[in-house]
Structures are given as C-alpha cells and as structure tokens.
Amino acid sequence: MVRAVSSNKYYRRMMCWLLEEDKQTIEGPYPKEQTHQKHVWWQVMCLTGVDYFSTLGYQPGIAALAAGALSPLATLILVLLTLFGALPIYRRIAAKSPHGEGSIAMLEHLLPWWQGKFFVLCLLGFVATDFIITITLSAADATAHIIENPLAPHFLHGQAIAITLVLITLLGAVFLRGFQEAIGLAVFLVGAYLLLNLITIGVGVSQIVQQPSVIGDWQRALFASHSNPLAMLGVAVLLFPKLALGLSGFETGVVVMPLVKGNSSDREDYPIGRIRNTRKLLTTAALIMSFFLLSSSLVTTLLIPAAEFEPGGDASGRALAYIAHRYLGNGFGTIYDLSTIAILWFAGASAMAGLLNIVPRYLPRYGMAPNWTRVTRPLVLVYTIIAFAVTVLFKASVEAQGGAYATGVLVLMTSAAVAVTLSSRRHGTQRARFAFGAITLVFIYTTIVNIIERPEGIRIAGFFIGAIVLTSLVSRVWRSTELRVEQVEMDETARRFIADASQQTIRLIANRFNVGDVEEYHQKEKEVREDNHIPLEDPVLFLEVQIVDASEFADIVRVKGTTVGNYRILRAESAAVPNAIAAILLHTRDQTGELPHAYFGWVEGNPIQYLLRFILFGEGDIAVVTREVLRKAEKDPERRPSIHVGG
User: Fold this and answer.
1) What is the pLDDT of residues 600-631, one digit of tens each?
2) What is the distance between the alpha carbons of residues 443 and 139, in angstroms, rounded to a whole number?
3) Of 22, 44, 251, 499, which shows the fewest CB atoms inside 10 Å?
4) What's the gap between Cα 531 and its chain centre?
C-alpha cells in the first residue's frame, strides 16, 4: 500500500510538471503570453536566427552550384528581394498579428465558416512541413558535418540516422527544460557563429586583395558564358528560385512575437512596444544576413574552384568551411566546423519555438485538438516523435528533405505576401497595393518553379496537410459534445426574467425563431403545455439560439431578454445550439440555485443526418445532444438541469 501511494504521488508530480499546472493555464486565447518570460528583441532574434543564419553553412555552395560565376549577382537579387520584398511584408504582418498568429491570422479573417477553417488547416500543414523539416534537415546536416569531419571516429560512419535522432532528442530536452535555456543557448551559438563567419569572410576578402587576378578570372568566366550584363541579369533572375532557401526565418520571426519584450504601457490588443521591437528584430536580422550572403557568395565564388562545389568536392555543402580550413588552418577550420555543427543542430530551435506558439492558437480554438495541446511540454514530446518518424522515413538525408523545406518556406512567404496585398487593398494606398502585388507575383512565380522542379516537396506537404485535416476532424467530432462555452453573459432584462421565474419552477421552452409574432409563441406554448402537462398558472420563458458561425468551436454566449406581446423571450447567438442551451441552463442553475427545466419537441428524420447537421451546422437533434452535453458537463444527476421532450 505504501508503495502504491508513493507511486501515485510520483505520477501526480510528473503530470503536474508535464502540464505545467503551476505555471500555465490551458484556457484563454493567448496562453503563452501569460506564462513565457519576455526577452529583449535581439535575444529573440538569436532564437529565430539559428535557423536563418545557419543557412550560411550551405547557401553559398548552393548558389555557386546553381549559378556558377553568376552566383554573386543571383545572390544580390536574393538580397534585394529580402530587403525590399520579404522584410516590408513581415514588418506589416508584425503590426497586424502582434500576438504571434503570423500571416495565417490575416488570411483567416478573409474566409468565414468552414472554408476558412479548412484553408487555415492547409496552411498549418505547410507550417508543419517547414518547421518539422527544419528540425530534421538541420539535424541531418549537422550529422553530415560530424561524420565528414576528419577527426570523427570511424565507427560513426553509417550511423547517420542514429546520430540525427540523438541530436533531435537533445533539442527536445532543451525545450522540455524551458524557453529560457533555449534562448540563452541560441544567443551564444549565433554570436560565436557570426563572429567566426566574419573572420573567415574577412580573411577571404584579404586574399582577394592580395590576389587581384582572381577578379579578372571571374570577369572572364562571366563574359564567356553571357554576352552582356542584361543577359547576366536575366539568367540570374531565372536562377533565383534555386536560392530561395536564403529567405527562411521571417515567418518564425513573427510567430515568436509573444516572447519579445515590449513597453510597460503596451495594450493587450495592440502592444505598440512589442511591434516596434519585433520590427527591429526583423530588420536587423535581414541586414545581417544580407551582408553575409553577399560577402560569402563573392568570396567563395572567387576563391574556390568550380569543381570543388560539385557533389563529392571539398566545398560541397561547406563552402565557407573550405575557406576557413584553407586560409586559416585546420585548427581554426575545426573550430569553425564545430560551430557550424552546433548551430545546424540548434537551427531546429526556432522551428520548435514557432510550432509551440502557432499551433495552439488555432487547433484547440477550432475544437480540432485537445486542450492539453495549449501546454508546452506535451507538445514538445509530440513534435519530437514526429521528427523521429520523418528522420527515419527519409533516412536522415539532407537532399531528400530539401524540396519539402523549400516548398514550406515559399508557400508560407507567398501566403504572407497575399495576406498583406489583400490588406493593403482595403486599408492601404494605391502605391502600397501595387508594390505588394508585384512582390506577391514574384513569390508565386518562385513557388511554382520550385514545385515543378522539386515535386517531392508538395507531396510531403500534402502528407502533413492530410494528417492535420484528418486528426483535426476526428478531434472536432470527438469534442463536439463538450460544453464549448467560455462564458454566459446576460443583460439586465434577461436576468430579471430569470429572477422572476425562479420564484416558481424555472421552465424554458426551446423555440426555433420563425416569424417572431405573438401567434408563433402562442401556438408553441400551447403545444408544449399539452405535451408536457404544464399547468396554465406556471410561467414559462422562451429560449432561442441563433447560429452565427458553426465552424467556430468555443465562444461567449450573450443572452438578451425581450418581449413579444406578453411572452418573455431569451435570445442568444452561438456556434452550436445544443451546447449554448446547456450552458444557459447551467448558468441559470448556478445563479438561482434552482434546477431549470427545458422543453423540446421530437424531430422527424434520419438520426445520422441530424448528427451531421449538428457537427457541420451546429443544429440537428437538439434535445438529445443537449442532454448529452449536460451529462458530460455535470456528473451529478441530482444537480443536472432537466430535459423534457414531447410531441
């Protein structure tokens, strides 16, 4: 017995830690903002930067392999689109979604009802593709650097999957520990990595100054392949989609906005200080990355022979590391390799932070995930398990996951551009509409080209979308008979009606509003009194619930009292009629101390059809479902409001 009690006590402590009950509530639209410590904007920039800046490990090589001698020019186009395309878009999104909803929230408001929810689920599928693949691809790339290092033990060769799984496990452990540790580690890794890259690029520039002949060789290579500057520019523009991975990191930057410290005077609905600091974050990250992209592309293109960029070459996937080893020696080169491995491993941190902030804002609110998915630690375990499965499925191959990564990044950036363009059409100037529209066309073109060239990306994204949609619909059906009402608010007239009725037995007649005249209520009262043998001297109230948006899951039910002739009516709006009626009955019981009685009529038709109507449109066999909602919400039958069905 003692052992059993001890075990149970340990279990309760473990669950309390897992669900963070002492720190966090699973209720409310923005739970993360109530619990996570806020950080200075540059610290959060480092958290998102482990993904963004880590692309320096492979972006110069990708650019050189795709564009050859045109690599610096193609990278310049990438930088221009970063500074004058992606950056303005996400600065606008930061102002429109300051609670970390990202561009998805802006698009969500454009499409009502179920089509809007389905659209958001599809976008969340691309979010999952982008963020999960960021975790697995970066860990796999770090594993490749470990195995390819000359100092690595021989027994590590052939163990790519196992090493990648260990790295993902360590990443998950950091987030199980807490955001504070994740951000602290990110600041150290980003600072060290950027410093080492600055030294490496600086040495590369000095080598170019000392060997001016490499500039002449580069110019001859350019004009040998392209007759004039306009031809070079045209080819560089066409090659841009191959370099699009250099745009990763912006979506995460706005998703983790709740972690950014604002001003003490910030309002909850529009935190100006947080918005301003997030814009600093985005702008600083874009400027830093633009500098490193341009300088690294120029240095690696001029100093590294083209053959070394090919698969199997010494600079394949590690162009800057090649420069570090060649011009600064193997000692510094090894330090650079270790820094690259560390930041590639931790690049998944920004993706994990993004998932932990964005998914709980949608699926639980839609009823498409349990409420525990608002809590950090269980979600970390879920995402880690998914990352395990993806790693095993793709055998920890960087190449196999590259298409999915690019697809996720580009679709999210395209959706962000579309959202900002549509927003500017409503509230912006003609100049803004034209500018954002042009940027949107560029992103659409880039996304389509990427999908055509690498169709495996859209297939992987389709798998994530299918999985999210299927599990979300199952969860929605499973949770459909929850109370689903956050709060019941009654106006003064409604409260007076309830108070008067509580002097005797509280009787509520559920009525579907039709004409709303005296004759309608007269006939309904007569029918219910006859079917349920209610004495004529007992007063009754009518209760009417109108559907507003059945695709919503939880809402605040506001009840207004009104009269038609001598009939007293309670009217409310909700996403689901049975759940709203159950919530009003329980609220009435709690306010008066009396058990109310609700009266319904039988419905005619197929019960399966009514079940589907309830799930999709919030109606159906209202009496039966109301009874079930009450049964689940109130376990004690003695305290449960009574349901009567007649006719």
Assistant:
1) 877 766 566 656 666 666 676 788 888 888 88
2) 27
3) 22
4) 52
**Contact assessment for residue 508 and residue 597, using Cβ atoms and an 8 Å cutoff:** yes
Long-range contacts of 172-180 (CB under 8 A, 24+ apart): 172/352, 172/380, 172/381, 172/383, 172/384, 172/387, 174/349, 175/349, 175/352, 175/353, 175/356, 175/376, 175/380, 176/377, 176/380, 176/381, 179/36, 179/37, 179/259, 179/353, 179/376, 180/37
Q: In what order do the strands lie in the sheet with 597-601?
A: 485-490, 555-564, 567-574, 541-547, 507-510, 597-601, 642-646
Interhelix angle 577-592/492-501, rounded to 10 degrees, is 70
**In this structure, how many other beta carbons lie within 10 angstroms of the beta carbon of residue 201?**
23
* CA 519 from centroid of its chain's CA atoms: 51
List Cβ neighbours of 536 (8 Å cut-off, separation of 6 or more). 529
Single-letter amino acid, residue 345 = W
Contact criterion met (CB below 8 Å) for 271 and 98: yes
HEC readout, 83-121: HHHHHHHHHHHHHHCCCCCCHHHHHHCCCCHHHHHHHHH
| Sign of the alpha-carbon torsion through 440, 126, 354, 114 | positive
- The closest alpha carbon to 56, from 284, 339, 445, 360, belongs to 339
HSE at residue 18, side-chain half, CA atoms within 13 A, is: 12
C-alpha 230/C-alpha 216 separation (Å) is 20
Phi, psi of 240 (to 5 degrees): -55, -45
Which one has a higher pLDDT value, 507 or 59? 507
pLDDT in tens, 85-102: 889 999 998 888 777 777
Residue with tokens 């529209």: 437
Q: From start to end of 271-380, where are the E strands?
A: none
Give residue for tokens 């991975």.
245
pLDDT tens per residue, range 308-351: 888 777 787 778 988 998 999 988 988 998 998 888 888 877 77
The answer on pLDDT for 188 being more than 60 is yes
DSSP secondary structure code for residue 82 in this structure:
I
**Amino acid identity of 563?**
T
Query: Which residue has tokens 């998944």?
Result: 348
